[in-house]
Structures are given as structure tokens and as C-alpha cells.
Write a structure and sequence with these properties.
Elements: E1 18-20, E2 41-43, H1 48-53, H2 57-61, H3 64-73, H4 85-100, E3 103-109, E4 118-124, H5 125-130, E5 139-142, E6 148-151, H6 156-179, H7 183-207, E7 209-213, E8 219-220, H8 223-230, H9 235-248, E9 256-260, E10 267-271, H10 276-279
Antiparallel strand pairs: 1-2, 3-4, 5-6, 6-7, 7-8, 9-10
């Protein structure tokens, strides 16, 4: 068995190709990350093993593929599970630039033309990083009850759990629709599916709450306690927390792309697909 720790050749593979600024600025990580003096993080190219992993459906579905690529390409972040959602797109862009270069060739379909027309577009990824909006810190919102809630961006790990829950419920729903004839059973499944997705949403939001402060200035940061409390607050109060959390997602890179259809000559605006299977294809 090879001992890569003793292999002198390995050191020559560890030269970062890029340094990028993270939208979070390194905030929201429980463990310090390794930033340069100018506040940038080193991004290394993918290995052949990483590229193969990104083509594995199972590894993509459970999020392990992206986390492993982050471990390889951004070693300055010790735990990829902690990557704030606002940093994910920036890191992916940095990895693609480090591996394949500054430009990404892709296609966008004109929404107006019939039959459909595919338009090749050469996206300048460096321009995406130039649009970065930086995170200014956690936000505190006061509810009508006088309770103050401080929220931060949710993490890659929390996002993966919600994505997996959504996919599993969709797959189960399709199977029930195909195999179950009894309408009452279908209704019961739909009710159970809603409950499970609600649980996943509560997990996501509670994971993004740093602390809850009561009117008498007691502070609570116990995750289980906060999650239980979320199930008891009013819908308007829940919506205030959810809206505040979503406002944090304004930080990050702008993945909006403009292209002009080669057939109808109309300019269109669309989003660059950032799911790993398409982005690294």
C-alpha cells in the first residue's frame, strides 16, 4: 500500500491555481479557515478522481461528491459541511476556473423560437466573481412577541439534507401514484409527505438560527429547543424569520446570463445552471 504522506512527488501537485474572495469573508464558520493576507482562499484544480466522482448519481444526490471536491480543491476549509450556502457558487466557479480555464462553453435554448433553437454561449467565469455581493454579518429580527432572533446563512450540509428529503418524497410519490389504486391511501401518503418535508424545513431554519433572546434578555442557542419553539410560533412570526433568512442569500455571485438568439435576434436573460452535474460537465 502506497504511503502518499512520504511520496515527495505529491508536493508538486499542491500549487493553487486561483485565489478567490468568499462572499462570507470567512464568517459563519465555527472553525477558522485559511485565508491569505488579502482575505482570499486558495483554490486548487480538481483531480481525475474528483471529475469521476461528479459523474456518480448517488454521490451527487447525497451531496458527498461536492463535499469531497471541496476537500480536495479548497483545503483551507477544514470541514466542507460548514460551507455557508452563500459561498457554494463562488467556490464552484473558482474550482472550474482552476481546472478548465476562465471560460465555460454552454448552450441556452431560446424560449421564443419554435422549433427550439440552441444558442452556444462562452461564459466568462471571472465576470461572475466580479459580481460578488459580500455578507455583512448575521441579522437580528424582533418578533411581535418581543423575542429577538439572530440568523446566519444555512450550510452546505443543511441544504443537502433538504434536497435529499425533497428527492426522496418525490420518488416515493411517483411510486405511490403508479402502484397504489386506493385514493384514500394516496391522500394519507400526501399528508405524511407534507409532514416530512415540513420537518426538513424546520431542521434547515433552526440550523440557521444563532440564538433566540427573550424579552427578559435570556439567550438560548440549543438547537433542539429552538426547533421545538419554531413549531409553536404563529405563521406571521415564522414568515418573518424565513424572510430574514432568505435576505441573507442576497450575498454571493450573480449567475444571471444574457444571450442573443442566433435565430430571432432577441436578447434573453437566464440563469447559469449551478447544479454540479451540469456545471462541471
Amino acid at each position: 500500500m502506497e504511503n502518499t504522506k512520504m511520496n515527495p512527488l505529491i508536493q508538486y501537485n499542491k500549487r493553487p491555481a486561483r485565489y478567490i474572495k468568499l462572499p462570507s469573508g470567512g464568517q459563519s464558520y465555527s472553525k477558522p479557515i485559511d485565508l491569505s493576507d488579502s482575505g482570499e482562499i486558495a483554490v486548487y484544480p480538481m483531480t481525475a478522481k474528483d471529475e469521476i466522482l461528479l459523474k456518480s448519481p448517488d454521490a451527487l444526490l447525497n451531496g458527498e461528491a461536492l463535499k469531497q471536491v471541496f476537500r480536495t480543491c479548497v483545503p483551507g476549509i477544514s470541514d466542507p459541511n460548514e460551507v455557508p450556502a452563500i459561498d457554494i457558487d463562488s467556490i464552484m466557479v473558482g474550482i472550474r476556473m482552476s481546472t478548465y480555464g476562465d471560460f465555460m462553453e454552454t448552450e441556452f435554448v431560446c424560449p421564443d423560437c419554435v422549433p427550439s433553437v440552441k444558442n452556444p454561449v462562452n461564459v466568462n467565469l471571472g465576470n461572475l466573481l466580479d459580481t460578488t455581493v459580500f455578507y455583512t454579518g448575521s441579522k437580528m429580527v424582533e418578533l411581535s412577541s418581543g423575542i429577538k432572533v439572530t440568523v446566519k446563512p444555512y450550510t452546505l450540509s443543511a441544504q443537502n439534507k433538504v434536497s435529499i428529503a425533497g428527492f426522496e418524497e418525490m420518488a416515493k410519490g411517483q411510486q405511490v401514484e403508479k402502484d397504489v389504486q386506493d385514493q384514500l391511501q394516496k391522500i394519507r401518503f400526501a399528508g405524511g409527505s407534507f409532514t416530512r418535508l415540513l420537518d426538513a424545513t424546520l431542521d434547515l431554519i433552526s440550523s440557521a438560527i444563532e440564538k433566540v433572546e427573550t424579552p427578559d434578555r435570556q439567550e438560548f442557542n440549543d438547537r433542539t429547543m429552538i426547533r421545538e419553539w419554531l413549531t409553536t410560533i404563529s405563521k406571521p412570526e415564522f414568515d418573518v424569520i424565513d424572510k430574514t433568512l432568505k435576505s441573507l442569500m442576497d450575498a454571493g455571485v450573480d449567475t444571471t446570463i444574457k444571450f442573443t438568439c442566433s435565430s430571432c435576434k432577441v436578447e434573453h436573460t437566464t440563469e447559469l445552471p449551478m447544479n454540479p452535474s451540469d456545471f462541471f460537465a
